[in-house]
Amino acid sequence: MYEATRNWKVKKKSSLKGRCVNSLNWHLTRKKGLTTRDGIAQGKPSRLEALLQCRFPTTRQYETHLERQMNIPNKSLTVVLIALAPVLIGSVHSFAYDFHYLTYVPGEVDYWPRWSPDGTKILFSRCDISTGCGGGATTGYWRLFTVPSNGGAASEFLEIDGVSATRSNWLWNSSPLITTPIVFTGVAQKGSSGSGIYVVGTSGLAPTRLPTSSDIPNGYPSWTPYGSAVSVNGSSGGSIDPFIELVGVPNGTGLEQQTQPDQIWTGESAISRDGLLLAFAGQLPVLGSAYNDDLNQIWIQSLIPPDTNPSDFDTGLHQLDPLQGRTPDWSPNDRFLIFESRRGCLNGNYAIFIEAASTGEPIQVTDCKLNANHAVWSPEGRRFAFSAEFFTPTKLCSAGCRGIAVAPVPERILKLGTAPFVRQEIALPGSPFAVTTTPDGQYLFVSMIANQKGGRNGIAIIRQRKPSASLIRVFNTGGDTFGLAMTSDGKYLVDTVQTEDGSAAPEGAQFIDVRKAIAGESGAILATVPTSPQTASSIEVGLSNDNRFAFVSNEYDDTVSVINFKKAIASGGTNAIVGTIPVEHAPVGLAFSGDGRYLYVTNEKANESDPGYNGTVCQIPSGIGNPPPLNPGPYGRLTVVDVPEAEVNPASSVRTSLYAGCSPTRVFLSKDNTVVWVSARDENNLLAFSASAILANAENPLLSVTPVGVAPDGAQPFDHQRFIAVANTNRFYTGQTGTVSILDYAAALSGAGDSGTVAQFPAGAFPRQWVISPNGKYLYLTEFSSDVLAILSTRAIEKGVE
């Protein structure tokens, strides 16, 4: 496909022959293959298309020519015109906005586009105009089709006898564990049953209708982030006025009514990518009037969670702006809404607009003459697809044919950031704890813990390709797997494993052959070294900078084990432990200085024998609740270990220790090793300490305190240490998801306080630990209670902050 909006500029006095030769020569001298303009694929027209372009500049002229020359009835021209439509359209019309058609079939109406999660396809409904679906009518018989988003032939995806497949929605989470990511509204034809909400896999085979009750509507389904529910709208049961309901998938149970017909009438809805907000077309009820979707505006409210008393929940319902609009769709990062509106179209048609979700200037992005409908964002946020009328009528399209078109998002909006912060979410079969990558960034390893939902433990192995990542296998470790550390050459992976009581599987640190683990070969576990067999408490692991020793924090033993790496591999784990380092209560986080001289260890609680010990200075959650129960407790400590000494005499290797806030859990160092950053979970702060002051036992080495979200854990610098990403777990609040705080590194270090946070956005449940890809493009975040690995784009975050 190539652009349908090109205009041929020729001198009026030039001859037809001259115009044709000039046009033909221009085509024949174009660079071969595909070119790109603003992210839209452009193609090279053939010599025949170029010649026909200048000889027959309108569709009707070309139809007449073929009828005369070939004596072909008009209806038989359809197939020929499909390939030539973009050329014929672009020749005589001028547009203010760039776009091109992906489908242009006279006699057909193409409607309700949806992108595939990887952005390579667009799913849409198609109806033969003879069945009664011309113009703005959505009656008739509809089938689902797909078309390549960069151009190509459309192919039938799904057809249900006696049921129209309409208003589809494709879940943006492409996890292989979600087997039916496509949902659509089925509309029964006359004389048949079968209306309802349908789900189907990417093969298009065996669609299933959800077993919903008669009082649940079925229009315009929109997914929640993890595919467990959809919002639908319509009038159903005893209500003649439309409302929105949240419906469980696949059980079809009504989970929570989102709007009340006596307060607002609603049309198409869209759940934000983070699952927190609901945008919809709506209008205030007027006594004596009926719902009319041409009178809608765009409204936004919080999504009401299941099992919530609506009278106790403030939805924050408000208009995006007071002007007419409908069919909203969220940008991948939830910062913008795209929608259709008649504003500014004097001919009564619809055009597509983009507006910041926080309200701002609505930007028109399509021409009124296209009468564009149902715009949807592409997954990367740089394009949008929509349904557009054929503005050059043909005999077959007197009632109003439509095609699927694609257009670039204007640069002025791209500069503000439309790409998703979360590029991809990979569903996992267990609860993820830690994540690491191979040095080339091609493979990810995610440790997992078996959960109460029947999940698995072990290590998920994920292949990171350029456009997306995918789960390739789960490596069996024999127990719940926690810490991970990769050798600098990528040959070995070290994990920590805790086994259940009575299990015969070994517990401690495992040494794994990376190549064999990736390939699924046997014998990948080379050695297992028990570190705390009495308490099963090995949790984190780190490798010395030269990879000669492994250090394991034993959370319930108050020690750090030191393991000779070479001996462990050679002996299968026998006699590999050098000894243990005595630290303080609940050691967890480990971080080495850049020169490898020091190891920093976080301890959640101080020893009672520590100078200045205060057992009531902190409020420590003792369980889960809303709010959680709190008990008084002491500060935690940061222990500094002399690594060379620990490698020969661990028992005497502690260099110093200091108080480090309430429940310190994770630690990392600045690139120049001058600043030690610690997440103080139970005071909701990120602390910065002077490394030199710590080593000098200075009285107050604390440099700054930066408030973040609730219960912060993992923290990761990125963009050459311009920013810090902090995972706020919110782990002690029942049913609550976490957040991610983005800090300006320099501002946080300087003591800017709250001003150090430049962005904050929702995450899944219990976001825990980070790793950054070797090329710095991606941040990987384990979301423990959501069973998800989130992949975030550092560039999208940077642009969003800027």
Describe the protein in words.
With 802 residues, the chain is mainly beta. Helix content is 11%, strand content 40%. It has a four-stranded antiparallel sheet, with no helix packed on it. Strands 4-5-6-7 form a four-stranded antiparallel sheet, with no helix packed on it. Helix 1 (16-28) runs antiparallel to helix 2 (47-55).
Task: Provide a short characterization of the protein structure.
With 802 residues, the chain is mostly beta strands.
Task: Provide the fold topology.
Layout: H1 16-28, E1 35-37, E2 40-42, H2 47-55, H3 59-70, H4 78-90, E3 100-101, E4 108-115, E5 121-128, E6 142-148, E7 155-158, E8 163-170, E9 182-188, E10 196-200, E11 208-209, E12 219-223, E13 229-234, E14 243-248, E15 254-257, E16 265-271, E17 277-283, E18 297-302, E19 318-319, E20 326-330, E21 336-341, E22 351-356, E23 363-364, E24 373-377, E25 383-389, E26 402-408, H5 411-414, E27 422-427, E28 431-437, E29 443-449, E30 458-464, E31 469-475, E32 480-486, E33 492-498, E34 508-513, H6 514-519, E35 525-529, E36 538-543, E37 549-554, E38 559-564, H7 565-571, E39 577-582, E40 585-592, E41 598-605, E42 618-621, E43 630-633, E44 637-642, H8 643-646, E45 654-659, E46 664-669, E47 675-680, E48 685-690, H9 691-695, E49 702-707, E50 712-718, E51 723-728, E52 739-744, H10 745-750, E53 757-762, E54 767-772, E55 778-783, E56 788-793, H11 794-801
Antiparallel strand pairs: 1-2, 3-26, 4-5, 5-6, 6-7, 8-9, 9-10, 10-11, 12-13, 13-14, 14-15, 16-17, 17-18, 18-19, 20-21, 21-22, 22-23, 24-25, 25-26, 27-56, 28-29, 29-30, 30-31, 32-33, 33-34, 34-35, 36-37, 37-38, 38-39, 40-41, 41-44, 42-43, 44-45, 46-47, 47-48, 48-49, 50-51, 51-52, 52-53, 54-55, ...
Helix pairs in contact: 1-2
